[in-house]
Design a protein that fits this description.
about 200 residues; Arc Repressor Mutant, subunit A; mainly alpha; about 0% strand; Rna Polymerase Sigma Factor, Chain: A; 10 helices
Length: about 200
């Protein structure tokens, strides 16, 4: 997504490069974080911590590696730490033990270095590909409602279609995306279900 020059500028501490990365990736990072944490304020805190970590560790950025993947790994680790702390404090949080285990499985793959790309990065890439393969109008509806988080009525008015048609497009898109992802990543069925429920 970002070229080597952007990575290089970020590594050198260029604020405009940091701003570009933030602007482009913030919505997707927020959507990902909300899969596991329902508290909007905490989601914002975790994303802010993620970008602070990126800035503080910018000198260690490898210019030929994906900044996007790097940020998702940082955010995932921040989410895991938060959920562990919540569990220790015996407060309520939004995912169950199986889902935590699935996150932990992804986390361990990175630690063990068994994948050239993390399983999470592969899933994110496949999700994007599945969305891109949707019929044009269905893709527009899905992106605006489920990725950008806009209201169904707003999207319906903007596209000149009924709310019922918006709902139909979303349902069909979810079915198509789910089939593609479950076929590719059967071990991640819980994560995929969460991804599409939002």
């Amino acid at each position: 997504m970002f070229d080597i020059q952007t990575n290089y500028n970020l590594k050198k501490g260029d604020p405009s490069a940091f701003k570009d990365v933030f602007k482009l990736l913030y919505p997707r990072l927020k959507g990902y974080c909300k899969l596991f944490i329902s508290d909007d304020n905490k989601v914002e805190d975790l994303i802010q911590e993620t970008f602070i970590t990126l800035w503080e560790k910018r000198n260690s950025i490898k210019t030929d590696r994906s900044i996007e993947s790097y940020l998702f790994v940082i955010l995932r680790n921040n989410c895991l730490n938060f959920l562990r702390n919540e569990k220790l404090e015996k407060t309520t949080f939004s995912i169950d033990v199986e889902e935590v285990s699935e996150l932990q499985y992804l986390y361990q793959i990175d630690l063990l270095g068994k994948e050239e790309k993390s399983l999470e990065e592969q899933l994110v890439t496949s999700f994007q590909e599945a969305v891109d393969e949707l019929p044009d109008k269905m893709k527009q509806v899905f992106k605006r409602c489920k990725i950008e988080g806009r209201k169904q009525k707003e999207v319906a008015d903007e596209m000149g279609i009924s709310i019922k048609m918006v709902e139909k497009h979303i349902a069909k898109a979810k079915e198509q995306i789910r089939k593609k992802l479950v076929d590719q990543y059967p071990v991640l069925i819980i994560l995929i279900t969460l991804l599409l429920e939002k």
